[in-house]
Amino acid sequence: MYNYCTLFNSNYVTRGLAMYESLKKHSEKFHLYIFAFDDTSYDLLNRLRLDYVTVISLEEFEDDALLAIKDSRSIGEYCWTCTPSTIKYCIEKYDLPSCTYLDADIYFYSNPAVLIEEMGDDSVLITEHKYTPECDFSDISGKYCVQFMTFKNDINGNTVLNWWREACIDWCYARHEDGKFGDQKYLDDWTERFHGVHVLVHPGGGVAPWNIQSYDLASKNFDLIFYHFQNFDFLENNRVSMGPCKIGEENIQRLYVPYIKHLQDISQQLKKIDNINDYNGIVKKRSFHWKDGLRYIKRKLTGTYNVYSLKKLIG
Predict the structure, then answer these.
(1) Could you say which architecture CATH assigns to the domain 2-207?
(2) pLDDT at 298 over 80
């Protein structure tokens, strides 16, 4: 049995459900603990009665330490702050031998068990960003990505997890400060700071917009385990954005078009249950800034303007 946890609010429900359905498709024995970060998502998820899932509300999960700093963080910052606490909660509440955290916007194409088994006798599994030179944000975001992380319920695993939780409660903001950024830069020195930390080797775990330029997904020898759809957003006027990195038309057709169709299918199913709330998290257009025109020209010239009409993409 492989135990996973994830967290999201109502704006990320379709992505979270797509991740769950892809995990269910490719996994044999698993359980997923979903932390619903608002009442709307909690009520909906309970109504869906998902197989192999336990839905956990904020009321159940939040402790005094988290509540004490909650008002000082934005919604996104608070989610980052809570990441290690969700893993710790699952391990302790359900007496799990291990738990793997999953970002809600990753999507599985094969069984992730092979990634977890790779860590062997080690206690913690982390994944590198593996940035390509043209999309390198390591100075800000760090060497490792909080997207797929496993912690065993042993001395080494709990030592790392408790340290990370306390660090995030102390400081976790969406800015670069004193070598820190969110919950992520804390991972940079774990292989030296702690014992039993394994860095994922399998090339199919952690493919993402910032490194897809170095992969040939069409190769028969490449085993894609999961893709991280970070910076994918639904926009107003039936458009989508795929972020600031160069993805390439072939990868858009191979990855993004089927993913968007899956999200749209889920959205249509949810409308039969709740036709009021927006579970795609449509990003509203902000006021125009004079630099927007320059950014548009630069991204068009470099092939990184990834805003598309849904009609043109999926019909």
Answers:
(1) Alpha-Beta Complex (3.90)
(2) no
